[in-house]
Sequence to fold (168 residues):
Amino acid sequence: MEGRTKQMPTMVFSCAGCNSVISDSTEYLCSYQDMSCIVVAGGTNISISLTSTRTSDPDGCCQGISCNVCGAVVGKRYATELPRHSLARNNFCLDVNAMSSYTLGNSELRASEAQPGALFQQAADDAASSADSRKLEQRITELETDLLKVQNMVLLHQERLEALELGI
Ligand SMILES: [Zn+2]
Fold:
């Protein structure tokens, strides 16, 4: 199976063991799902083992690629042509199980959405709004008292008016 070479998002590949950056998508050539690897043309913080080992292929020969920081084996470099995996030869085949990746522009936490102290701000807002509603209640009580006074005055005036009318 020839690898997929479709356009991939801008990604950073790092060692799963220590999170050191080992390559990125600008070096990406293809991926071979059946080999659980991605093929890159270059990397950083990695070195190629000086000793070659046989692969499962009868004539296959490869070298290990290890992380310079923690020493973990992160992939292989095939010296021989692999059937159906032409790009694997002489490039770096990074083991997808030995690395992690980060897609650029994929931030999980946005400063504008989750401000430190957001809860504190919420508490302050709540306190302010409950103070507002207390003021409002007080004002309503005052208005009700005033309204009652006005109603009483109207009644009083009406009674006086009636008394005057009767007097005539
Ligand atoms: Zn590492």
User: Anything to note?
Assistant: Strands lie at 11-15, 21-24, 28-32, 37-40, 46-54, 61-67, 73-78, 92-95, 99-103.
